[in-house]
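REQUEST FORM: STRUCTURE PREDICTION
Request ID: SP-0412
Submitted by: Lab K.M.
Chain count: 1
Length (residues): 194
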Amino acid sequence: MTSYVFRDGAIDYKRLEEMVKVIGKGALVLDLSCRKKDCDGGYFVVTDRWQKFTDFEITEENLIMLSKYCDEYLVHGVDVEGLRVGVMEDLVEKLGMWSPIPVTYAGGARSISDLELVKRLGRGNVDLTVGSALDIFGGDLPYDTVVKWHYANFDVLEDADKVVRMRVIAARAAVAAKNTLDEANRAFRLSLEM
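STATUS: Completed
RESULT:
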């Protein structure tokens, strides 16, 4: 939820509290789509098709304060959304350091290396959503490769059901086999250059 909560450039706490009463904190995801106000400035939430800046800056204090009302944040890096130019590294890093609740970042992702980057910069606290880069949306990144990466990087196996555990094991084996094949191909190419 964004527009209902952010009105006239500010958070409408009355509306936010109403939403928490109606659907509960555990079911509420706040969309904090943001842009930089200027080159050296911070990130501010934007509304109205990402055209209007609010007074809400993405800071540690603000993320902690808002976490009292919701269970997760969705943060679009608006300046790179849909462009497949890479993620906004500084924003992902800040989200990983500052957010006390789960965050899903969206914007600019184009490759498996972006998934790895978000995992590292976000300190394992930031998820990444991939959109236009996926082959199912006309991009170059195979959907099944992203799903395989997800399962291969799955952390909590003991709480997972049988199907998830099987997918994790299969994905990890597939990734290991691909890495072994890539190494063998590199070694073969090097041998041809001798």
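NOTES: The first helix runs from residue 13 to 23.
Reviewed by: T.R.
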